[in-house]
Write a structure and sequence with these properties.
By secondary structure, the protein is an alpha/beta fold. The chain has two helices and five strands; from the N terminus they run E-H-E-E-E-H-E. It has one domain. It has a five-stranded mixed sheet with strand order 1-4-3-2-5, with helices on one face. Helix 1 crosses helix 2. The longest helix has 15 residues. It starts with a strand and ends in a 10-residue tail after the last strand. The relative contact order is 0.26.
């Protein structure tokens, strides 16, 4: 069973669904808009790549990356603001958060 929790939802300016960015597009957008993107407030998500980093993984698919909170069951952190999502994923990648391709790798049994 897949569970998703949406914390920042809304449509993007270009009308695309959340998660439609791929890894290359993510990097290109960050390089092109790096100065402006750093102005976003990321404090709400900071634990995902700092103090709670071990509790998180990035699920990689053809559509890009999706932050997953490890657990039983794992929970997706859906960020519908595409720019904010790209920033959070970039911070998580830079911090070395684990990247997984199988959703079951996010399952933690206690």
């Amino acid at each position: 069973m897949n569970h998703a929790r949406s914390t920042v939802c809304g449509s993007t300016a270009d009308g695309k669904e959340a998660g439609e960015c791929g890894g290359l597009r993510l990097r290109a957008n960050l390089l092109l808009r790096g100065v402006f993107m750093s102005e976003r407030d990321l404090s709400e998500y900071e634990g995902m790549w700092t103090t709670e980093r071990e509790r998180w993984a990035l699920f990689r698919s053809d559509m890009g990356y999706l932050p997953i909170r490890r657990g039983d069951p794992p929970m997706a952190e859906v960020i519908c603001d595409e720019e904010l999502s790209e920033l959070v994923v970039a911070k998580m990648l830079a911090a070395g958060v684990a990247v997984v391709v199988d959703f079951q790798d996010c399952q933690v049994r206690e």
